[in-house]
Amino acid sequence: MERQLPGKGTMPATAFDRLLIAVKPITVPIADRGIDLQVKVTAPADGDDLPVIVFSHGNAWSMDGYEPLVDRWAAAGFVVIQPTHLDSRRNHIDFDDPRFATIWRLRIADLHGVLDGLGDILDRVGGLPSRVDRDRVAVVGHSWGAQTAGALLGARVLDTVGNPGEDFSHPAVKAGALIAATGTGEALTPFALKYLPFARPDFSTMATPALVIAGGKDQSAASTRGPEWFTDAYHCSPAPKRLLTVAEAEHLFGGISGEYVKDTTDEDPARVVLVADAVSAFLRDVLDVDATGWRGLQDRVADSSGAFSIESK
Asked: 170: which strand partners?
């Protein structure tokens, strides 16, 4: 049995047959957070020299979301660590909560806490520490999580008069992938200006290699611009960068946060597979694990009938 992907080629269903292990919750000490940071670790049950992905979820989600992506990354040979950020639904902090205005900083602190405590986290999963390559670490995020991950890649947040904020990059991060990343802030809607004033990224300092993934039909309530807003992380950052545009994708790219999740407006399992495999192929390439997956994805572009396109610089 095989799954048909957009464009030339198929992905064997046996990609789902690799035995995985998942451990949760693991508590990570973070000062001045109020609520304990908990993470989930998903990894293949076999294999050595495993690279690491730290994944930042979108607004309101948690470590229990995005299983269609996480399981596929683990099956591709990654150890995936998912923190539950403070804005998760389970913490009941909405837009009007006085804590909401600073959650963007706490999200970044969460990722730093995971990276700084990586050894302790891995020690909680029996047999895993000796199988991990701690020199191959990447950050990945979706939506607000993409802005969070972008900060560790070198992006900064501009204040209301355009001054760049702190440098939150992390030396352990060698690469990243940003899925539906917040664009630049000059076209924010009244809603975003009120609740998301920190949605003003400056990508000019984001020098770490990254893959930007944008949906051709992703229209954000935070911006007066169209779907191209989500390509700013590529166009406004220095090389090396790659851009994957999925023509018919909306904000959840066919259901990346979970199967048949009610938030998904463009249900398409093959699109989810495309996004998952593009991230793992890119990271395996730039982390010097294996370049064949990315070359295969590039080979499928011409035969995709415009379903997706790739740019690089």
From this structure: none
The Cα–Cα gap between 78 and 76 comes to 6
Q: Quote the pLDDT of residue 2.
A: 38
Q: How many residues does the chain have?
A: 313
Alpha-carbon separation of residue 167 from 29, 83, 108 (angstroms): 22, 21, 11
The C-alpha torsion from 248 through 253 and 254 to 258, rounded to 10°, is -170
Q: What is the pLDDT of residue 1?
A: 32
CA-to-CA distance for 271 and 39, rounded, in angstroms?
27
Mean pLDDT of 73-84: 97
Rounded CA gap, 1 and 13, in Å?
6
What is the rounded CA–CA span in Å between residue 131 and residue 147?
A: 30
Residue keyed to tokens 């997706």: 308
Give the DSSP H/E element, type plus range, for residue 273. helix 269-286
The pLDDT of residue 4: 43
Q: Which residues, including other chains, have CB under 8 Å from residue 230's CB and lie 6 or more apart?
A: 180, 181, 182, 183, 212, 214, 215, 218, 220
CA contacts within 13 A on the Cβ side of 309:
9
Cα–Cα distance for residue pair 110/30, rounded to 1 Å? 7
pTM for this structure? 0.92
Query: Per-residue pLDDT for 5 more than 70?
Result: no
